[in-house]
Amino acid sequence: MDKSLLITLEFPPQKGGIANYLANLYSRLPSDKVFVLAPKTKGSQEYDATCAYKIMRGNLLTSYIWPHWLMLYFRVKTLVKKHKITMLHISHVLPVGYIAYRLNQTLKLRYAVFCHGLDILKAQATPQKKQRLIKILNKASGIVVNSEYTRGLISGLGVPDSKVLVVYPCPAFVPNRETIETYDVVAKYGLSEKRVLLSVARLVERKGIDKVLECLPRLYEKFKDIIYVIVGDGPDINRLAKIVDDLKIHNLVRFAGSVSDQDMSKFYSIAEVFALPSRQIGPDVEGFGMVYLEANLFGLPVVGGRSGGVPEAVIDRQTGLLVNPNDTNDIYQAINDLMTDREWAKTLGENGRVRAENDFQWRKETEKLRLFLSGHTYG
Predict the structure, then answer these.
(1) pLDDT tens-digit profile of 51-93?
(2) Which of 185, 331, 324 is nearest to 260 (CA)?
(3) What is the Cα–Cα distance from 126 to 110, expressed in whole angstroms?
(4) pTM
(5) Cα–Cα distance, 255 to 275 (Å, whole number)
(6) CA nearest 217: which of 250, 255, 257?
(7) Angle between the N-to-C axes of helices 290-297 and 261-270, in degrees from 0 to 180, rounded to the nearest 10
(8) 367 burial class (0-12, 13-18, 19+ CB within 10 angstroms)?
(9) Backbone φ, ψ for residue 280 (5° rounding)
(10) Quick one: which of 243, 255, 239, 256 has its CA closest to 215?
(11) Among 99, 105, 48, which residue's Cα sits nearest to residue 78?
(12) Beta bridge partners of 276
């Protein structure tokens, strides 16, 4: 494998699917072959100390110089020479891809691009950006995507399919439900003898949590002991809180905020159904949805929106139910059916657990990636 530098605008301790995806992959690649250049954030020094590979931090984009990536270009050029980098790995095709393309032109430096869905759609906002996007993708030595859905977006731009490899996100842990103590979370949020409906997400509008909230009054008519727990934080929190106020369902909703991995396991363990009916809003789309697999690992049946790459994470009527994410009645019916027929729900959850354990392993996905980046044909 080439000595490689990953340039990314999202990396732990930042939260989110892209940050976790990249961190899980790079922690399993040869530590002497990879370097990471990422934003400096609160807690990054402590996080970096736990990693075997070298992470360099800084303010990657500047608002006072145009183009915003110009200073980053010179920094990357310096790092390439200092560490004898022979390949760049780019997350966020625009604007970081501009740097890779220019260094390919001037230094003949090879590069690979990681694409996640939203970045491909957003980069087509104008004809000029779309043209640059296609140019960057066509010049890349390889393109890594998180789903067949995202691969399809790239194929639609005329990029050769042979350049593209699907590397799926995978759950980061395999739980042992028998050893998880949940009494503190149950007591804190008043969940004793309650039927817990769960969502775990960064709180942005496309996740569909607003639609689940709209279902709660009807669900409460049938399930008097239902509680909806929302784990995560994000820019949509105030809008969601207002929906709770407007619907007068404070007694049915618990906002848990961001929690540790240990507490996350507790919420999964006490939940009965996981619901996240993600939808596409403009270019904002769910490229895959690892959180559905995490829920499946705990034996939970899941409800997902028929949008983006979600149908690859949720197999309809096998590991969960896919719904029209814009149809509140469809979402209600799916949750109602799973909470009514507990045996069926248990079967779907168990199917999901087996699939998540057998088919989605970081070790296998990383080996695919390593071979691909090394120039070997995978599969």
Answers:
(1) 999 999 999 998 888 899 999 999 999 999 999 999 999 998 9
(2) 185
(3) 27
(4) 0.91
(5) 15
(6) 250
(7) 60
(8) middle
(9) -90, 130
(10) 243
(11) 99
(12) 304
